[in-house]
Amino acid sequence: MSPIRVFAPVVVFVAVLASWSLVSHVLLDPQSRFLLPAPEQVVAKGLLDPMARSTIVTALWSTVQVALVGLIIAIVLGVAFAVIMSQARWAEYSLYPYAVVLQTIPILAVVPLFGFWFGYEFSSRVIVCVMVSLFPVITNTLFGLKSVAPAEHDLFTLHGAGRGQRLLKLQLPSALPAMISGFKISGGMAIIGSIVADFFFRQGEPGIGRMIDVYRQQLATEELLTALLLSSLVGLILFWLFDFLARRVDHAHGLRRDA
């Protein structure tokens, strides 16, 4: 990894912290400082306070569980639908428009309906995550499956490969980089979907979305910012994991091409 990939984000992070501290300590008067507490106050009340930290981490873990289950289901369904659409043009014409419709549905309007239909606990929250994270998996996987070079298809035809062999040994390996790009997008979307579901589904173990709403009502800005930042950190970790996987896949593809 080049030093600039590490140094540049660190510089931006320090600049953001400095700007944040400047606004809190200099531009805001003491009576308005609760609107944007200084970074050290956020750390002291949101992370160093044992009770606040325990509450936030427990709620965040509940949200992460929902997001991971929803993401796994979205990956399985998205890859399956993309494979079906890649194998038959009529299937793509039949299914893809509804995938687009799924992406354009306003999630905030549909979430209450899921509560009416499926209840207000874990399963409904998972359904919301699947709904918001499914489309990137479908589109990226389908793009990757359809982007195989014609010459490679001709080579498999020359060797008499069947449709299953072509899919398993040519299309899916070639589509992996595009698929993982879709997974990276869907990982962040799953976290967002889980937090949105927390705002509506208030039965069962509270998630981070419900705690954000509680902190908003209490004007507990330090805890609210801590919950927001830790939620973003989880999304970043998912993104980095898939990015690492993507670089490993690209490296493997490069070795295969060189061979």
Automatic annotation (TrEMBL):
Please name the InterPro entries in this protein's record.
Answer: MetI-like, MetI-like_sf
Instruction: Provide a GO CC annotation, any one.
Output: plasma membrane
* Domain called ABC transmembrane type-1: residue spans: 60-246
**Membrane protein topology class:** Multi-pass membrane protein
| Transmembrane feature ranges | 7-28, 59-83, 95-118, 124-145, 175-201, 224-246
- What family does the database annotate? Belongs to the binding-protein-dependent transport system permease family.
Task: Specify the superkingdom.
Answer: Bacteria
Its localization reads: Cell membrane
Q: Which Pfam families match?
A: BPD_transp_1
Q: List the protein's name.
A: Nitrate ABC transporter permease
Offer one example of a GO biological process linked to this entry: transmembrane transport
- Which keywords are on file for this protein? Cell membrane, Membrane, Transmembrane, Transmembrane helix, Transport
